[in-house]
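Posting this for the archive.
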Amino acid sequence: MALAFRNTLRAARSLMVRGYAEAAPAIKEGEMALTLAAGNKVFYNKVAVKQIDVPSFSGAFGILPKHVPTLAVLKPGVVTVYESDGKQAKIFVSSGTITVNEDSSVQVLAEEAHPVESLDRSAAQEALSKAQSEYNSAGNEKAKAEAAIAVEVAEEIVKAAS
């Protein structure tokens, strides 16, 4: 029995192949690697970009190559990505974190994110009305706080969709 187990283990080891991690993309001077992901989608995965503008609880700010290392909390709003080819992408984020590393790589990790062009203004307006109603009728502090967050997110979606 032990011999059969060892033979099976040897056979399994021969199937395991170790390799190197995927090489990072070549980043030119004046660019930085961006990873922007949410639970629903990965928008950028180590893609070279020129600038990123983010909304944070300490204020909105722009990130350029060689930015000082930073860790911040995203607030609901629009992240604007200035791609290397000159295009701009606007992505609405509900919350999350921003990390700027010493090597100029940036990670934006959002709870939820959607391209601005996919937002429905009338649905956002309806969600805002519902959230405001829930806030006004909240029976306790917890319900009021949860409704206040929903109001803030809905207000930012309405702004972004306009």
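Residues 141-161 form the longest helix (21 residues). The first strand starts at residue 32 and ends at 38.
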